[in-house]
């Protein structure tokens, strides 16, 4: 029986991961946008992929649990690739925290009972979490300690109503959540990692580039000399879930072409 790869968020990175990794597996594609799911599913099915789709709201407990149950119904879970999220131009600070922070907690909680030896999770964070996160050490400890339902009650106390503040905070929280989850996953023979993309040429990335002039500055000064692509992220996901990456768990890989390094050194000040 073929194993299952779960991908949430069928934007540029999600599609790139599906195409690069989905051959020979059952693909469960999950997204809030049913029209996007239908379009992507048709294209991949035409290309020979075995695709099942499911509407998913990662901030909703029942919706995420339904996705986990569906994945197990399809077969043993090989990988969970969580790319679903909102950027600053897409919603309010509260909604960004609900989707990015609580959504990650719900994914980790819902899939944990269904892990088996060899299962690998890859969750998308952001390079912005290295530059500004707006969380105190005490808040970071609470985020690790609280369940998803607890986080839902805790979010208003953070005071992160500005989307530009909520986004990097939510992504720093994701890195902390993955680090904490790796201990529980490891007891089941599973691994979980996060990836922090920089400025990438995806629909979401382009929307942010148009809204924030600093993005052009970052692109112009990227040590790698180019903007990132969705395929760059898919390649890193492939490495993490492969046997070559089997000693990786609980940490974050920054895939930004060197932008954070530039901004954090004297050359970027």
Bin the strand percentage. 5-15%
- Count all strands and give the number: 7
* Biggest β-sheet: strands ordered side by side in the sheet: 3-2-1-4-5-6-7
Structural class: alpha/beta
Low-pLDDT runs: none
Distance linking N and C termini: 54 Å
Name the average pLDDT. Answer: 93
* Computed Rg: 18 Å
Main sheet properties: 7 strands, parallel
SSE ordering: EHEHEHEHEHHHEHHHEH
Number of helices: 11
Q: Tell the overall outline.
A: globular
Query: What share of residues is helical?
Result: 40-55%
Q: What's this entry about, in short?
A:
With 269 residues, this protein is α/β, with parallel strands linked by helices. It is built from eleven helices and seven strands. Strands 3-2-1-4-5-6-7 form a seven-stranded parallel sheet, with helices on both faces.
Descriptive keywords:
alpha/beta; seven-stranded parallel β-sheet; single chain; 269 residues
Q: How would you describe this protein?
A:
This protein is of the alpha/beta class and 269 residues long. Helices cover 48% and strands 14% of the residues. It has eleven helices and seven strands. The protein has helices spanning 12-21, 34-46, 61-74, 93-111, 137-145, 148-154, 163-186, 203-211, 214-220, 230-241, 259-264; strands at 4-8, 26-31, 50-55, 77-82, 120-124, 191-197, 252-255. The chain has a seven-stranded parallel β-sheet, sandwiched between helices. Helix 4 (93-111) runs parallel beside helix 7 (163-186). The longest helix has 24 residues, at 163-186. The chain is globular. The relative contact order is 0.15.
